[in-house]
Specification:
about 375 residues, mainly alpha, A middle domain of Talin 1, two-stranded antiparallel ribbon, two-stranded antiparallel sheet, about 80% helix, about 0% strand
Amino acid sequence: MTVTNVLLLLGGLVLLVVGAELLVRGASKIALVAGLSPLVIGLTIVAYGTSSPEMTVSVQASLAGQADISLGNVVGSNIFNVLAILGIASLISPLPVAQQLIRLDVPIMIGVSVLLLLFGLDGNVNRFEGVILFLGAIAYTVFLIYQSRKEQNADVQAEYEQEFGGTQPSNGKTWIINVLLIVVGLGLLVVGSQWLTSSSVAIARSFGLSELVIGLTLVAAGTSLPELASSVVASIKGEQDIAVGNVVGSNIFNILAVLGLSAAASSTGINVSSAALNFDIPFMIAVALACLPIFFTGNRIARLEGILFLAYYVAYTVYLILKSTEHEQLPGYSQVMQSFVIPITLITLAVVTLNSLWRKRTANR
C-alpha cells in the first residue's frame, strides 16, 4: 500500500459524494421546472441519484473485468444501507415507517434480492439476466410515478415540498446552471469511481484481502455515503419517510439497475463467487427479511432496533476480515455467531412480532 493509493481512495470518495450531490440537485431542479411533483422527484431522482456512485463504480469495475468489486459493491452497499445507515439514523431519532414501504417496497426489496441469488446460482449473472434486471428497474420506476400521482396524503406532500422547495422559475439561466450541475456531477462520479476502484484493489492486495471483501466493505461504505448523508439529515430534520424510503429505494435500484446494467455492459456478465453465493448474498436477503418484523412492529425503527442493526454490521465486517485473512480466531467467532447470537436474535424477532400482532388483534376486537 502506498500513500498515492490512500490519497486516490480518499479523493475518489470525496468526488463521489460531491458528484452525487451536484447530480441530485441539478436533476431535482430541472424536474421541478418541468412540472414534476416533488413526490415523484423524491421517489425517483433522489433515491436513484444517491445510488449513482454505486452505478459508476460497479459498471467501471465490470468493464475492467473486476467482477468481485462490482458484485461486492452492490451486495455490500445494500447491507450497509440497512444495518449502518438506518442504525445510525434511528439513533438520532426513531424513524417512522410508512405503510406503503411495509406493504410494497420492502417485499419488492426482498424479492429482487432473492432473484439475484437465483440468477447467480450457476456462478454468473449473464448479459440477458442483466437486461431483465434493468428492465425491472424501469418498470419499478414507472410504477412509482403512477402510484405517486395518486398520493393524497397531505403530510407526505408537505414533506417533499419542504425537502425540494416547491416551484422553480423557468428561464434560460436556470436550465443552463442545472444542466451544468448534472454534467459536472456525472464527470466527478466517473473520475471518482475510477480512483476508488483502482486504489481499493491495490490496497486490498497489499493487505492480502480479496477484491470481494474490499468491495463488500470499503467500496460499499464509500459509495453509500450519499445515502448516509441523506438519511441522517432527514432524521435530524424529522422528515417522515425520506430516511427509510431512500434506503429501501436505493437497495432496489442497486440490484435492478446497478447490477443489471453492469451485467448487461459486460460480454461475460458478472461472475458470482461461491463465497458470495454461500454467505454474502444470503446475508443480504436475511437483512432484507429482518426489516419486515422490525418495520411493522409499531411502524417505526426504534433506537434499540438501530443498535441491533449497527451491532450486526460490526459483526458482519469482523467476520469478513477474519475470513479473508484466515485468522486463527475465525472458527471460534463463527461458532459464537451461529450458536448464540443468530438464534437469540431470531427468537427475539419472533417474540416481538407475535407480541405486536397479538396487540393489534386485541385492539381491533
